[in-house]
Each structure stands twice: as structure tokens, then as C-alpha cells.
């Protein structure tokens, strides 16, 4: 398969698009990003990477970070994490507060904001926010084998200053006894993890541990990888998860920075980035590019 050729074709096709969606506006620092950019990178089971477009431009990974914090939280707490957060799709927007009242402060899954806040709160247990961020960054750097990966402090500051929705979620969870730390501490950690900056090439490399290939680095057990992939498939795109499964057929996790990490089990880790979002807060061209790639490679978990 001429993967390089396929990626070049996808990048060329995306460069012609005038309808590109709009970058996230509720985090002012992200609203300034040029929507004309598009990058794609793939690491195959033989360890080789292939890339096209702006694959080396750094972007804010935002909610894609939740895959790495979930892996860390499961490493630290094991199945005890599931007493605090569920494993069902929410069918609602990533920042919704609606179900929290009905479900008494136990978020539906670790990928919606409320669930990711609880997951980060779980990793914080016994450490300071600085140590916890160090552990998150170490995990991602080790996964990508790249020590240059860093936190974009301007993005973290920008979100902290405008993060009233997340403060509402954290306080509400705290009111139900499901947050162990002060909302400022947990959210300070959460905003900084979301502000980690990576390129598509770095993100695809960091996603290699999810491929479950004997040739690629393994940071967590094969069984745990399967579970993380299941959650990415069912919850990774929030209320757009069904559509992503239908169109792409691979587990994927999106972020409002416009990045998506997807996994073709046994075959490849894929990262795409384009800052313009669709109505559900997922990258518009990124989703299209994933669909094109899946169709041309035949990669799908559905046969
Ligand atoms: O908490 C937030 O709203 C952001 N830091 C992350 C949200 C996000 O990336 C949703 N993904 N599409």
C-alpha cells in the first residue's frame, strides 16, 4: 500500500476546501489559530511514520489528553476508577452539566469534561498539581519518545480565565462528594494537561501504545489497551461518536484544538489536525480526512 501517496492525496484534497469550520472560540487563545492548516501523520506497526501537510506544526491537544490521563488513572487506581466515573456514551455535548444532577455527580464517561475532571482528580491523589502534570508529561513524552513535548502556558492561562463552565462542573461534582481536591487544584491540573502542544507526527507516535502491536512500544497491558480503545470508539467524539464510528470505523479521540487521534488495532496510530470544528466541537476536515484514510486503506474494526 502506498501510504505516503494516500496521505499526500488527502492533504492536497483538504487544501482545496473553503468550508473548514471555525476554531473553538470559548478559549480565546485557540480562536486565533489559522484555520487554513491541515496535517496528518500515521505510524504503522512496523514502526515507520508517514506524514503530509502541516504534520510538524504544534497544536493544542486539548481533549486528546484525556486518553493519556485515562491510561494513567487506570494504572494508578485500576478498576476502582469506575466507582467514580462511568463507561457509557452521554449523547450530550462534551461540556454538558445536564446528566450530573440525575446521576448524582458521577459522570457518564472519562472523556466528557466532567468525567475527565474526575479522572484528573483521581491521578492527583497523593501528589501536587505540579507533580501530577510532570507525571502526565512524562507519560506522553515516553509514549512518543520525544522530550521536546511541552505545555503551552498561554493556552492554559487563556482557558483558566474563561473556564467558568468547567468550574461549574467541578463544583457540582464536589457538592456530590466525587471530587477529592479543591476545584482550583484539579482544574489547574486539567487546564494544563489540555494545553499540551504536539504535532501530528508526535501525537501519532504517542498513540503507538494503543495499537497493540508486538513491534510497537507497550506502556499498558494489552487488555487495558482494548478497554481504552472501546471507550474511544463509544465516547471519544461525545455526541458525535456514533457518526465517527459509522463514517470512520476506528476508535478515535478528538480535541477542540482540532486534533484527532485514531487507532487501527494491530495496524497503525493516526493523528490528524485541522483547527476548524464542526457543530459537535470535533475537527471538520480532520473527520473527513480520517474517513478518506479509512476508506482507502480498508482499516476498520468492523471487518
Ligand atoms: O475543557 C475544555 O473545554 C477543553 N479544555 C477541552 C474540551 C475538548 O477538547 C472537547 N473536544 N472536542
Q: What does this protein structure show overall?
A:
This protein has 303 residues and is an alpha+beta fold. The protein is 46% helix and 11% strand. The protein has helices at residues 3-15, 28-31, 65-77, 98-102, 113-124, 129-144, 153-161, 164-175, 183-194, 200-206, 222-235, 241-247, 284-297, and strands spanning 39-44, 49-53, 59-60, 150-151, 196-198, 252-254, 259-264, 268-273. The strands form 2 sheets. It has a 5-stranded antiparallel beta sheet with strand order 2-1-8-7-6. A 3-stranded antiparallel beta sheet has the order 3-5-4. The longest helix is centred in the middle third of the chain and has 16 residues, at 129-144. It binds 6-diazenyl-5-OXO-L-norleucine.
Please describe the topology of this protein.
Blueprint: H1 3-15, H2 28-31, E1 39-44, E2 49-53, E3 59-60, H3 65-77, H4 98-102, H5 113-124, H6 129-144, E4 150-151, H7 153-161, H8 164-175, H9 183-194, E5 196-198, H10 200-206, H11 222-235, H12 241-247, E6 252-254, E7 259-264, E8 268-273, H13 284-297
Antiparallel strand pairs: 1-2, 1-8, 3-5, 4-5, 6-7, 7-8
Helix pairs in contact: 1-13, 3-5, 3-11, 5-8, 5-9, 6-9, 6-10, 7-9, 8-9, 11-12
Poorly predicted runs are: none
How many angstroms separate the termini?
A: 18 Å
Number of helices: 13
List the bound ligands.
Answer: 6-diazenyl-5-OXO-L-norleucine
Strand line-up in the sheet with most strands: 2-1-8-7-6
Amino acid at each position: 500500500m502506498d501510504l505516503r501517496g494516500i496521505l499526500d492525496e488527502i492533504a492536497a484534497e483538504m487544501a482545496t476546501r473553503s468550508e473548514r469550520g471555525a476554531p473553538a472560540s470559548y478559549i480565546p487563545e485557540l480562536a486565533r489559530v489559522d484555520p487554513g492548516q491541515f496535517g496528518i501523520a500515521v505510524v504503522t506497526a512496523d514502526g515507520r511514520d508517514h506524514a503530509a501537510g502541516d504534520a510538524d506544526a504544534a497544536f493544542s491537544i486539548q481533549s486528546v489528553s484525556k486518553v493519556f490521563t485515562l491510561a494513567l488513572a487506570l494504572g494508578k487506581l485500576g478498576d476502582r476508577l469506575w466507582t467514580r466515573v462511568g463507561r457509557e456514551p452521554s449523547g450530550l455535548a462534551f461540556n454538558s452539566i445536564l446528566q450530573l444532577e440525575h446521576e448524582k455527580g458521577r459522570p457518564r464517561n472519562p472523556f466528557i469534561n466532567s468525567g475527565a475532571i474526575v479522572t484528573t482528580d483521581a491521578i492527583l491523589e497523593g501528589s501536587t498539581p505540579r507533580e501530577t502534570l510532570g507525571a502526565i508529561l512524562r507519560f506522553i513524552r515516553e509514549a512518543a519518545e520525544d522530550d521536546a513535548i511541552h505545555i503551552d502556558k498561554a493556552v492554559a492561562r487563556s482557558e483558566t480565565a474563561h473556564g467558568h463552565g468547567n468550574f461549574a462542573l467541578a463544583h457540582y461534582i464536589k457538592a456530590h462528594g466525587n471530587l477529592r481536591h479543591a476545584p482550583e487544584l484539579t482544574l489547574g491540573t486539567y487546564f494544563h494537561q489540555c494545553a499540551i502542544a504536539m504535532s501530528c507526527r508526535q501525537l501519532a507516535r504517542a498513540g503507538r501504545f494503543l495499537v497493540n502491536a508486538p513491534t510497537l512500544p507497550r506502556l499498558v497491558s494489552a487488555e487495558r489497551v482494548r478497554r481504552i480503545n472501546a471507550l474511544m470508539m463509544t465516547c471519544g467524539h461525545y455526541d458525535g461518536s456514533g457518526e465517527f464510528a459509522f463514517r470512520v470505523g476506528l476508535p478515535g479521540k478528538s480535541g477542540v484544538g482540532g486534533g484527532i487521534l485514531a487507532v487501527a488495532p494491530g495496524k497503525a496510530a493516526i493523528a490528524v489536525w485541522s483547527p476548524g470544528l464542526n457543530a459537535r466541537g470535533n475537527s471538520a476536515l480532520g473527520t473527513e480526512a480520517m474517513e478518506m484514510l479509512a476508506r482507502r486503506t480498508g482499516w476498520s474494526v468492523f471487518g
